[in-house]
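hey so i finally got around to running the thing on that chain from the lab meeting. sorry it took forever, my laptop kept dying and i had to restart like 3 times. anyway pasting the input first so we r on the same page abt which one it is
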Amino acid sequence: MIKKAFIITLFFLFSSLSVSSCSTNNDDNKKEIEVNGVSLTCSKESIYLDETCDLFVSITPVEATNKKYSYTFTPSNLIEIKNDTVFPLSEGKVEINVITESGNYKDSVSLNILKRENNVTDKEYIKSLYQDEYNHDLYPTSKGWGLSELDNVGVNYDKLNNEELYKVPNEGKIYNAKDYKITFNSENNAGNLTLLLNELANVDGVKIIKFESGTYYMNSTILANNVSNVYLVGNKDTKFIYTGWMGFIKATNCNNLHLNNIIFDINPSPTITGKIVSSEEDDVYAYIYVNPDEEYDLSNEIYQKYYLKRTGSYAEYYYDDEYKSYIPNRNGNLFYNAGSTGLTDLTYDKNTKLLKVTLKKNFPYCSYKKPNKGVVVSVGFQVYESFGFYYLNCVDTYMENITTYTVGGMGLRTDNGKNLYLNRVNFIREIGTGRLLTCTADILHTCNLEGVAKFTNCILEGSHDDAINVKTFYTKITDIDGNVVSVSQTQNEVSISFDVGDEVEIYDPSNMSYKDTYKVMDVKTIGSNYDLTLDKKVPNKGSKNYTGFNLGNASKATRVTLDNSVIKNKRNRGILLQGRDSIISNCTFLNVNMGAIQVLGVDDVFKEAIVPKNIKIYNNKFLKCYDDIQVFTYGSKGPSEASNNTLKDCDIYNNFFYKSIGNTMALYGVGNIKVHNNFDFQLNSKTYTVYVHHADDVTISDNITYFASDVNAFNYVKDGGNNNNLLINNNLIKGVL
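ok and heres what got predicted. didnt touch it at all, straight out
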């Protein structure tokens, strides 16, 4: 709904009300410092009649002796001002003036007072929150629903579908793809495009490669090495269809690389959908017979080569009538072969046209349950083999209006590099097909990315693993000599590096307790390991010996923005965030089956880093997810031995939760956490919303929980113990309207 605001501007010749404010203590024995200026700002340009805003007065110099000031405003009947806060009385436009007592210096600001035109009943408002992913810009009859911005929850539909942030420049040299033998009929489009990109590595300026509307077939991965300021730009309905199971684009050491307006897909698909015809089992294995959907030809040799790799996944789905989508069934079978062998064979019978799926029943991550005939399943013939888009040591990478339907591996991965910007980048189920599994691994996976990862207006759907995983890694302290520490790599995915001036943090791996922060003064490289000279000594004796502890590079932690995006219809997590100074806002998480948002710092076999800090989560919808928001740390001793006050400074507000399963919110190993102004529409079986343990300085206030019918036993917070300064205020329960 479009807001209609009628701003009435009234002009009065004689209408001025004065409000005074003062601060400062004068010392008669000191020489008076006179005021030489004042500025006035307001926290908002417009407010509704049911809102307030704040005024900010800045007097110069800051050392001025007399900082008293007063307000006047015209017309005088539209607002009141109390302690620098504006309270509206009537709609219209008001000019607010400030004047200093010393020197009569003045400044002014204008404020529009608006009347809401988008009010609906409370029932209509609540339905608008859970009916779909979007923000419907409605406002309820009553204000008592906890939310601080009642009309700003969820995804803006217009931005999601239309916002342009990274436009193709008007100036630059144009390279038409067809002039370089990149055509709809070419058998070597990927090779020819790779040759063109290699040529452009030696060309200065902006280079724009343009593709026509239509389908380009690719039989190999497109390679871009050492190119800068290059744009790959499609037209309406430009498609790249890959004829084998491979990555789409691999870019190495590139700078300012742009992809715009292209659809990516693979045919034959590395993921299929079908229905169970029958099943049988023995003591060790279960055998599921699947009838694939007609769109898949499993007699194709690419499927027949499966036995050479024997990786893949098998998952059972159910249909969600409320949101009209197939969802991975947490209570069904989920078996895979990627490190642990759960799926051992896929065999297609050309005569019966059935796919035989062999599962090892003692798979440690899923207990086998005999499935029913007719259950819908997805099968992935790969797991982590490929990266759809792979950026290695790239700086300033941009993608806009890119759609991908399937990848045999991760959708996108970065290793090292700096700054990744994605806008309207979608990994989705293709309409008109039965494919349920988009990426056989994660969708977006950043590894040791410096700077910014900014994801806006994206739809991420249907992946086997996390929709987003943002991480780096810890190194391990192997030796300490005064202020010099030797550190070794803890994994072989990437090499964690250090520069002079970096800030590094040390954590005890047993419980992830924070020890100290140091500044790197000198770096000595020894193969993939380092000797770091720090700005102060590091403990190395007795109980304070930091040898063997985790050392992470805080200066290189990724700063994440996830805004106005949809993550839905998938198993595993929505976003796994291990970054700093990050924001998750105006997103919708729909039917995410294993943690919609996890902000975490743990010590486990993966050694992923770093402990997050300064995270804001607001204006989001969580619809029928399992474990909506989890903010936690723990070490090798597990969550029961988590260290208080490790992950700090997280603000969770103005979010809507609907029919949560598991923990709506869980907080442990944390400090300085605020949970406020959230609205919770819960199942009657819920007994709490927030679970807190091993936490310091947590404030949970002004939240609302609504039950569709009466509920007997419910507390907003479940105190799991080992908490200090846990403040719980004004969290209310509502029943049937």
